[in-house]
Amino acid sequence: MLTIAGLALAGASPAAAQLTKFSPNDKAFAYTTKSNTLVSVWQQKSGYSHADYYRKASSGTQRHLWNKSGVNTTVTSGSGSALFKMRVCEWVKDNDDICSGWDTE
């Protein structure tokens, strides 16, 4: 998995990717860039996935970034205040999603 993560982050700046998580079944990978102001979700196996995250400016609001675009696609959030907490989840139809633990700053 480390090789795959390195490929996903190849375009990131050296100080980027401070928060990173693989989903429990390695279907998706979420990471931050631009000093934690952007979050991206890379779908590496079939299915849907999402990152749940919190930003410093609205610390009580959980946000979600979905990737429903297919295998080997990446979606990226708009910029905002820095993220301080993030996890990545695999969507499970008609059931609770399977999520990683939280990565915190």
Compact description:
The protein has 105 residues and is mainly beta.
CATH fold label: Immunoglobulin-like
Amino-to-carboxy terminus distance:
22 Å
Percent range of helical residues: under 10%
The CATH architecture is Sandwich
Count of all domains: 1
Q: Which oligomerization state do the chains in this entry correspond to?
A: single chain
Taken from the alpha-carbon principal axes, the silhouette is globular
Average pLDDT score = 88
Q: Write the element-wise H/E pattern from the N-terminal end onward.
A: HEEEEEEEEE
Number of E-type strands: 9
Major sheet characteristics: 5 strands, antiparallel
The number of helical elements comes to: 1
Q: What is the gyration radius calculated from CA atoms?
A: 13 Å
Query: What structural category characterises the helix and strand content?
Result: mainly beta
Question: Could you name the CATH class?
Answer: Mainly Beta
Low-pLDDT residue intervals, each spanning 5 or more residues:
1-5, 7-17
**Into which percentage range does the β-strand content fall?**
35-45%
Protein name: Secreted protein
Keywords: Signal
Organism: Streptomyces poonensis
Signal peptide: 1-17
